[in-house]
Design a protein that fits this description.
This protein is α+β, with helices and mostly antiparallel strands and 199 residues long. It contains eight helices and four strands, in the order H-H-H-H-H-H-H-H-E-E-E-E. The strands form two sheets. The chain has a two-stranded antiparallel ribbon. Strands 3-4 form a two-stranded antiparallel ribbon.
């Protein structure tokens, strides 16, 4: 997925490929002792004779990818944004849900309990401590109280999130919620237009 997006966006496929392949080897949930310095990724890259500048760039991208609750930030480079988007897309659909359930089951987490409300607006520390149900993993809630899938799509404004679901998330789909500035006599107004996912 990351390589496909990189090709469409004219990004550095070498950097994107390595960052995508290695982005989970130092994940804080799986390898907390190596997470801070990306020790596993660095070791692999050095053993394969990758130069130090490229190693640092790849490790910086890996640091930016993970979902961190309300502390999540978009990647700084095009390559980081691509790997982050591909990682989020990987979490969608039947495979993503199955992966969430498999991880949750492995960590003795409930799939769903109507008595446990989703933990909303968790910061990075709260998110990394663990979530009680798979529902927390799949959904979040914004300040206005809307539930939405945890997604990132290049250029999609947050106003569109409440309109996105598993069934309508695909290339060519349009969603309400995008604001576009328009000059008018005396200033600027924001008109609501649709956002469309393009190939």
């Amino acid at each position: 997925m990351a390589e496909y997006i990189a090709e469409k966006e004219n990004a550095d496929k070498y950097i994107v490929s390595l960052a995508a392949l290695l982005h989970d080897v130092d994940d804080i949930k799986l390898s907390p002792n190596t997470n801070k310095n990306k020790d596993n990724a660095r070791c692999f890259l050095k053993e394969n004779h990758v130069d130090e500048d490229t190693i640092n760039l790849i490790c910086e991208i890996i640091s930016e990818i993970s979902y961190k609750g309300v502390d999540t930030v978009p990647g700084k480079t095009l390559e980081a944004k691509i790997v982050q988007d591909a990682d989020r897309l990987d979490a969608l659909g039947a495979i993503g849900i199955a992966r969430a359930f498999a991880y949750g089951g492995n960590h003795n987490r409930l799939m769903y309990d109507p008595d446990i409300k989703p933990h909303l607006n968790m910061n990075e520390e709260e998110y990394n401590k663990g979530i009680e149900s798979d529902e927390d993993y799949l959904y979040s809630k914004d300040k206005e109280g809307f539930y939405y899938l945890k997604i990132t799509v290049a250029g999609m404004p947050k106003g569109c999130y409440p309109f996105v679901n598993f069934k309508n998330f695909k290339v060519g789909a349009s969603y309400k919620g995008k604001k576009q500035p328009k000059r008018v006599p005396g200033g600027v107004v924001l008109n609501e237009i649709d956002f469309t996912i393009k190939e």
